[in-house]
Amino acid sequence: MNRNGCQRPLHLAEPPLARESQATELIVLNCAGTGIALIGHRIRVLIPLTLFLAKDATMTRLSFLLLTVAGLAGTAAQADPIEWDFSSGSNCANISTCYGNTRDAESGDGIDVNASSWSNTAGAGNVQIENAYLSVWGSSGLGTYNRDYSNGTDAGEGGSPEHAIDNNGRYEMVLFNFAEMVELTDLEIGWKGADSDMTVLAWTGVGAPAAVTGMDWGTLMGAGWSLIGQYSNVQTNTWQNINEAGQASRYWLIGAYNPVFGGDVFSTGNDYIKLSGLRGIAVTVDTPLSLPLLLSGLLVLAHRRRRS
Ligand SMILES: [Ca+2]
Ligand SMILES: [Ca+2]
Ligand SMILES: [Ca+2]
Ligand SMILES: [Ca+2]
Questions:
Q1: Kind and range of the H or E run holding 181
Q2: pTM recorded for the entire structure
């Protein structure tokens, strides 16, 4: 056991690559290789994937190559692409009794996803979001009947093409709740109407999102949801690349194009799509540093500063 209490000594590599980092003081390094460091006046979090110890190597003073870590969240450990299929299941005989239903995807990879449908049908102005009916149309994929189908105020919602996920009358989106963090990379539609522009959001807030019931679409952005992209003229039975920035999340909202989220503006008419598949990769999140570890590091630093 070494002086850090680890069962095995920390590996000290030769001085790292040409892209030498700024000299930095290592404050704490635990057995897993996780640590925090002081760079100037800024505390940085280190994770094992990005830690390369250099020489000048006593365990009390080290310099090392540091890759910046964005916040406490870790980075992806990439795996093979996973596909989720939404082409199976049957529809409720009386849709007005089945609003708020959910569907699980067939993935076969161990990462379950649960889908539900939402639309701005509540209130006198049809601004607030409430749950809808998530339909399935075989290989075409998922559609949505919003609650204004039953009362007839979204005229046409009961027939084609508004039996799809559409933005004619109301905006409709499907919420995908994955069992683990995933980085979605592609989506597939199995059917489209006259136009097929789409919006993709991901939850980037802390913890799990609050229920969207009662919110309006515009307030999602200030509540922890982020625009992943607006995609025009999505083609059927073709994997549409999305999420160019590589965002990972457990929660995704995908639907017919909604201009309230900004981004590209498409004006060629209402959009109607049925979503048949998603593709992505699983993401492993490094465990955030504990508060005690951070505090112990600060105490060590303060002690050393007094001695020097
Ligand atoms: Ca309504
Ligand atoms: Ca619809
Ligand atoms: Ca509609
Ligand atoms: Ca359009």
A1: strand 172-192
A2: 0.71
